[in-house]
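Predict the 3D structure for this chain.
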Amino acid sequence: MVGDNTNIRSPLLPDRMQQADFFVCDIFDAAPKGDMASMEHPIFSISTKPDRRIRRYENGQNFVEVTPSVKGLATVHDRDVLIYCISQCIAALNDGREVNPSIRFKAYDLLSATNRGTDGRGYEQLRAALERLKGTVITTNLITGGQEELDGFGLIDRFKIVRETREGRMQEVEIKLSDWVFNAIRHREVLTLHRDYFRLRKPLERRVYELARKHCGIKKEWKISLAKLQAKCGSCSTEKEFRRLIMNIVRQDAEFAHMPDYAVSMENDMVTFVNRRSDEPKKLPPALSAITLNAEVYHDARDVAPGWDIYFLEREWRSWMAEMDSDLPRNPSKAFVGFCRKWFETRGRP
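Done. Predicted structure below.
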């Protein structure tokens, strides 16, 4: 047909800019956040030397087995990379943006946000951290985001240094988080950390703070035996040496109050964490306080958490949601029963 052109060409040039399939970290003031699963269990090494032990930690029906690479287990300081990425993703979700397990960030921004040196040594340490995070393999039945992982997986699936200066110093880094970590992000199974966390010098101090943040939360205090604290820290020290290390933290905290959020003390091998803000009035956001649950929901909750005071669990549930800074659940009744089920699976009968 005259005038019929079957090879119609768009007036626009082809889009030669490849669309990004990764999330870019660009939120300067994102609040530090850590995933709750690795705050609860000793995934990261607190040793200052390469730790090549295979470790297995069991708590009730849950277990975590961590296998190092030849370069050793990922350390508590290596965790800074994950904290930075989790913090950026949660801040983006709060702004209504989409996130992706593939994440790109500027090395300088991460080093600055986590209180690390930005000299050559800082970049070398970051590269080593990426290698240990990639090499550390976890096998666990812990559930993140309602999904149980039984296969071995790394904390990050891969990493790539996108740009380097002429001196060989990295500028941009791209990593892909494991499904386990990204599930925790998508379901907001995270807790906010005090910014002074990054100022704690000793790996043990950081690990002790993580446990206090997870278990004490906004409660007035939390107590734990020295033996159980040692197991949760993943320390391979002797009992005598671990007691000495904790006492050093206790003495320094009594003098300088340097531990964020919680004062720490020990008596008769019982370690006590007291919330430094426990005297401040605790108010839940109005939207959380307005949630109502009916008798049928309480009945279902009792079925999944036998033996527990259901009203205590309700207070814990509301406080937990407040700590997570998350949006209100679409189905509060279902969310509360799910919380009670997970509580019982983790702790058993009171």
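Confidence is low (pLDDT under 50) at residues 13-19.
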